[in-house]
Amino acid sequence: MSRLTPVQPADAIVAERLVKRFGALTAVDGISFMVRTGSTTGLLGGNGAGKTTTLSMLLGIVLPSSGSVHILGTDMVKRRYDVLQRMNFSSPYVDLPRRLSVAENLTVYGWLYGVSDLKRRIRLLAEDLQLTAFLDRPTGDLSAGQRTRVALAKALLNDPDVLLLDEPTASLDPDTADWVRGYIETFRDRVNATILIASHNMAEVERLCDEVLMLRDGRIVDRGAPQELIGRYGRRTLEEVFLDVARNRRVAVQAAGS
Amino acid sequence: MHGRDLFSFRRVGAFLLRHLYVLKRSWPRLLELAYWPFVQMILWGFITTFLVQNSNWVAQASGVLISAVLLWDVLFRANLGVSVTFLEEMWARNLGQLFVSPLRAYELVAALWLMSCIRTVISVLPAAFLAVPLFGVSVFALGPVLAALFANLLLFGCSVGLAIAALVLRFGLGAESLAWVAVFALAPLSGVYYPVSVLPDWLMPIALALPSVHVFEGMRAVLFENAQRWDLAGLAFALNLVYGLASTLFFLRMVRVARMRGLLLQQGE
């Protein structure tokens, strides 16, 4: 991958007053946030909170009803092709072609992202993500956990400056999930990548994220560093904070504390 | 940066590579591509053998029916080449991955058209060659105008296929059957097996607006009059430019609608 002194603004991701309506449903309701370059931010929220819609707007495959998104200083509504090569993503909502082997899939996406020295890059990623033994097997023949690692390999092919991950350790056993989290940390530190993770796994968010955005009904209802949130809510874990937010108990907690 | 390229052959090549890998891995798919054109050719070969002895019109140009069926298959396969290649992305739930990659929507259109050309050649060429020893009919005897007729049908089939792909993108896989049936609505108007003059007057303007009509008239001109009608090929090409542009704009519009409605991550079985 050619990395030609990329522009790295202080905030790699800037979303301003972002709204997405699908007919009468408001999926995302005027959220604004910034993600510092080189940091990892978690999007937390229950089902239907607006996490995937937010990620989709950041990627430019869903157009906002109003508001703006800038990634690496580029307007994602008007000029997303200027920056897509420096981004990547992984999500359980999309697949890689199952009939293609792992190596074929990575080759195709390597071409799409213009990865240089592709064979070497695939070999190294396969070694890192323990996929070497599966490179020639059809992707559809792999276990869910193995496919998740292949999807992660695809997401890291171009050494993205901005990486968006939707449930990155879904379907993985605890040991493998822990290993993948470690790998994501290593990758972030090596590339100084900016990562946004949508996840239901609180331990994952607590470990990986510098900041957490708590979403409910399409709005950011709270934000802060994981430990800061835990302290603010008077809880022991982020999971307990999540339940407070999901069940709209913030007011009660504050009232009890005041 | 390559991502800022307005058009990248590498990205188009990546899409082609993805589908060539699928063909390479599956000989039944390759066989299936060539199967129907071959069966059609056999069927119409025997019908021709019968009609040559019982119809003056067919007897004047014994290759007219087999040539027509082979050329119609070019149109049909080109349509399928675009629409099924696109459907495969939806079946594989790969559309979201493609649309967040640097592949531009119009590069996807170019790649779909190129893939359709490859699939059509694989489909039709074996039947065209086998018609020579089996029935003594060579579509290649149409002469140099054959290349223009072939290209026109390829272009028109791709336009139809792209419009169908756009509808499937907008309305989901519930509309996928259009890929197989929609093009048949063009057959009666295209004068595949009969001169377009048999159509009623009120249908003529619609028929003449189709590139396929001029292609099949051009084919009959060669077979019955031994005339290379380049004017008809040119007219068909002009119409194809209009249909190609219209279908591309329609597809790009549907991509935008899909982005507005959040359809790109949801598509799949």
Structure description:
The complex is a heterodimer of chains A (258) and B (269). Chain A has 258 residues and is an alpha/beta fold. Chain A has one domain: Rossmann fold (3-Layer(aba) Sandwich). The radius of gyration of chain A is 19 Å and the shape is globular. Chain A contains nine helices and ten strands. The N and C termini of chain A lie far apart (54 Å). Chain B has 269 residues and is an all-alpha fold. The mean pLDDT of chain B is 92. Chain B has one domain. The chains are: A alpha/beta (258), B mainly alpha (269). Chains A and B meet through α1, β6 and α2 of A and α1, α5 and α12 of B.
- Give the number of domains of chain A: 1
Tally of structural domains of chain B: 1
- Major sheet of chain B, described briefly? none
Element order of chain A: H for helix, E for strand:
EEEHEEEHHHEHEHEEHHH
Average pLDDT score of chain A: 90
Question: Which value, in Å, is the CA radius of gyration of chain B?
Answer: 19 Å
Instruction: Please write the string of helix (H) and strand (E) elements of chain B.
Output: HHHHHHHHHHHH
Q: What is the fourth-level CATH superfamily of chain A? A: P-loop containing nucleotide triphosphate hydrolases
Number of E strands of chain B: 0
CATH class of chain A: Alpha Beta
The secondary-structure class of chain B comes to mainly alpha
Can you count the helices of chain A?
Answer: 9
CATH topology of chain A: Rossmann fold
Poorly predicted tracts of residues of chain A: 1-5
Strand coverage percent of chain B: under 5%
CATH architecture group name of chain A: 3-Layer(aba) Sandwich
Oligomeric form: heterodimer
